[in-house]
Amino acid sequence: MSRSSTSRTVVLKALLESGPLSRSAVADATGLSRSLISEVSQELLDIGLLLEMPVPHDPQRRGRPSILLSIKSSHAYFVGASISEAEPLMVLTDMHGRVVGEHTMTPAESPPEVVDSMRRGLTSLLRSRAIPREQVLGIGIAMSGFIDHRAGICLHSAALNWHDVPIAEMVHASTRIATYLENDANAVATAEKLFGCAREFDDFSIVTIGRQIGCAHYMQGELQRGHAGGAGEIGHITVEFEGPRCRCGKPGCLDMFAASTAMIEAAKADHLPVTRVREIEALAANGNASAIAILRSAGNALGFAVASLIQINNPELILFEDMEGIGSGLFSTTVRQAIENNILPRFLSSTRLLFHQVERNVLARGAASIAAHQYLLERAVS
Q1: Which of 70, 314, 321, 368 has the CB geometry, 3.0–4.6 Å to 78, for a possible disulfide?
Q2: Are 226 and 215 in contact (CB under 8 A)?
Q3: Which of 97-102's residues contact partners 24+ apart within 8 Å by CB, and which partners?
Q4: What are the DSSP calls for 17-34, one per residue?
């Protein structure tokens, strides 16, 4: 990468992490000289990637009003698709990661059916927002399982029963738009780093709480995928050696205790009339012993696994992404207590725990962020 490209990347990262900044503030944040900031910002203004935002003049201050640099939200759009969930979803986002359109996909299982569903969803999204196809500069796909993100191949997805499927290439061939594939937890982590709760953190882990337990890690500002793309498979940590057999084939995986499906199945086995974890929480709040036991078992299992993660990676932040609307009740309280009881005191004081209830489009929005990341920090600066 050339010096000019590197400088553009640094400037864009600063604006992504901090929002609109003056040229002098960008220089302070990046360590680049003011003359280089002026040169780079002008290049990005010329291609329409940045815009200038005048700050209202303060009569108490002398001199000209400040001019802020900001990424232009309508410069381009990105599509994100979550295809391994019960309700597959597509979203259209702008350059700031804001969702400007949603489309519920036709459920599909085979790769050709998924590609066809995505192609029709893309047409629907663009028509609904009157956005020309030429302004869509990338499509991101998020799915659970083992992913080769460089080749765009799903190596294995238990949810879809896919093996070695070049899904990114197939979607690109159908839409003629650059397409990227990523593990769903990694996609969510990228969205939080670029546009969400983790913008100010360089070392953090996200834990997604949904039909499965997912996890992803940022270290020193970079997403860590591991040697074969499998970093973060916390849902398959063994938490009980004699526990129920997971669909991965091993007994006692975390997914079999802390995932929403596992909690609901446990509740139904105890004849509790529930379909959502929040209903188990409501029963527990009213003193139901079975509900209390289920939530404590799940919370202890997740907290124990996350405590190990903290002592291995030493992140600044653990961000729990509540995808089920569980809320702040016995489950989250138990998770916190289990973490606090199973980590060294030095980690307890330096690790922030944050439970974040997210919208149903979080995975699809994360997928769009993967495409945005590729464009903003790679293609746009080349």
Answers
A1: 368
A2: no
A3: 97/191, 97/194, 97/195, 97/196, 97/365, 97/368, 97/369, 97/372, 98/73, 99/361, 99/365, 99/368, 100/129, 101/125, 101/128, 101/129, 102/361, 102/364
A4: HH-SEEHHHHHHHH---H
What gap in Å lies between CA 116 and CA 119, rounded to an integer? 5
Instruction: Let me know the angle formed at the C-alpha of 259 by 253 and 260, rounded to the nearest 5 degrees.
Output: 150
- What whole-number distance in Å separates Cα of residue 78 and Cα of residue 368? 6
d(C-alpha 329, C-alpha 258), whole Å: 15
In this prediction, residue 382 carries a pLDDT of: 65
Which tokens go with 308? 């190990």
- CA atoms of 142 and 58, how far apart (whole Å): 46
Residue found under tokens 């990676």 = 313
DSSP state letter for 67: E
* Residue-wise pLDDT tens digits, 327-359: 889 999 999 999 999 999 999 999 999 999 998
The 3-state DSSP class for residue 113 equals helix
Q: How distant, in Å, are the alpha carbons of 79, 92, 194, 303, 359 from that of 365? A: 8, 8, 11, 27, 10
Task: Determine how β-strand 77-82 pairs with β-strand 352-357.
Answer: unpaired
* 268 neighbors 256 (Cβ within 8 angstroms): no
pLDDT digits (tens, 9 = 90+) for 79-115: 999 997 778 999 999 999 999 999 999 888 899 999 9
First CA to last CA across the chain, in angstroms? 7
Token pair listed for 81: 């698709």
